[in-house]
Amino acid sequence: MKTNDDSADLIERVKAAVAGNTPMRIVGGNSKSGLGNANDTEPSQTLNLTSHCGVISYEPTELVVTVRTGTSLQVLNETLKDSGQMLPFEPPAFAGSTIGGVLACGLSGPRRPFNGAARDYVLGMRVINGQGQSLSFGGEVMKNVAGYDVSRLQVGAWGTLGILLDTSMKVLPVPEMEMTLCQTSAAHDTASFAALLRQSLPLSAAMLIGERRYLRLSGSESAVRAAASLLGGEEVADAPTLWAAVRDQTHDYFTGTSGTADAHSLWRVSLPDAAGPLPLAGEWLYEWA
Predict the structure, then answer these.
(1) What is the pLDDT of residue 208?
(2) What is the dihedral of CA 196, 200, 201, 205, to 10 degrees?
(3) Are strands 177-184 and 234-235 parallel, antiparallel or unpaired?
(4) Contact 237, 212 (CB under 8 A)
(5) Interior CA angle at 272 toward 268 and 278, to 5°?
(6) E strands of 99-176, at which residues?
(7) pTM of the shown model
(8) Residues with Cβ within 8 Å of residue 118, at least 6 apart in sequence
(9) DSSP class of 69
(10) Left, alpha or beta for 121 (phi > 0: left; psi -120 to 50: alpha)?
(11) What's the rounded Cα separation, in Å, for the pair 121 and 40?
């Protein structure tokens, strides 16, 4: 894996920008430039963090990884997978995604309502503040913060509170077994989903599209098989591909090739999991993350 500590150069560039009162655009792989509201004016300088990359420390037995934020998300996922572990919040893996971009945008995937969001797994962080200073917050254990938890505050701040340099995160073992069930359902039947979420089931993803409901079960083989027997439904053969497509927004629904969605008009509406269907026109994909 490529590794390089570029923090000294990044700090000097920020100090120079501060001295010259020059706005900077912070990017990693630039895979999320289409998210959020566009700036009216483009900053004159771009600060690219992809050269600041590599795993600083990783001890699988401690379930903690410390990594530079310019590290490719794909590379980090492969490193964890080699040890039978994963990022529990299952972030979208857009082309060129870095772990810094994932955390800056606060992105999580289908596991979020069951495992927790990205900020729940951040233990510590080193950032460059608006004065060009390198500051460290938190550490490498869960209970390490007295006062404001500044490291987790950075997650989802879109880089407005500092430039992310390094981060320590908790990781988890890959489940012993996963199975996805497909069931026939009434369209817009969100009420039955809410009822399932209140049961002691090893759910790790849930989706409703049209009249088909998808439930992913993760955990020990005995727990997954028992839940599958209770819930019923048809097992999905290529489930990892299905959930990756939903996570990364490459599913036919998002591209408009399924005949259910208009590719030129896509809205995301976030609601409580027990909310009923909204009286709005259009085709819907309900996903419990």
Answers:
(1) 92
(2) 60
(3) antiparallel
(4) no
(5) 60
(6) 122-128, 134-138, 163-170, 172-173
(7) 0.86
(8) 89, 91, 102, 103, 106, 107, 108, 155, 156
(9) T
(10) alpha
(11) 34
Sequence-ordered strand ranges (E) for 24-170: 24-27, 45-48, 55-59, 64-68, 85-86, 122-128, 134-138, 163-170
Both tokens assigned to 232: 């019923």
Which two structure tokens, joined as six digits, stand for 150? 């500044």
For the chain, the distance separating the N- and C-terminal CA atoms, rounded to the nearest angstrom, is: 31
CA atoms within 13 A on the CB side of 270: 2
Give the H/E segment covering residue 209. strand 203-209
pLDDT at position 255 is: 79
DSSP state of 28: S
Computed from CA positions of residues 114, 120, 168, 242, in that sequence, does the dihedral angle turn out positive or negative? positive
Question: 10-residue block means of pLDDT along the chain (289 residues)?
Answer: 88 93 87 73 82 94 95 96 96 93 93 92 94 85 63 90 95 97 90 83 93 95 96 95 94 73 71 82 84
| CA 100 distance to own-chain centroid | 11
Residues 151 and 124: their CA atoms lie apart, in Å, by 6
For residues 113 and 147, the answer to whether their CB atoms sit within 8 Å is: no
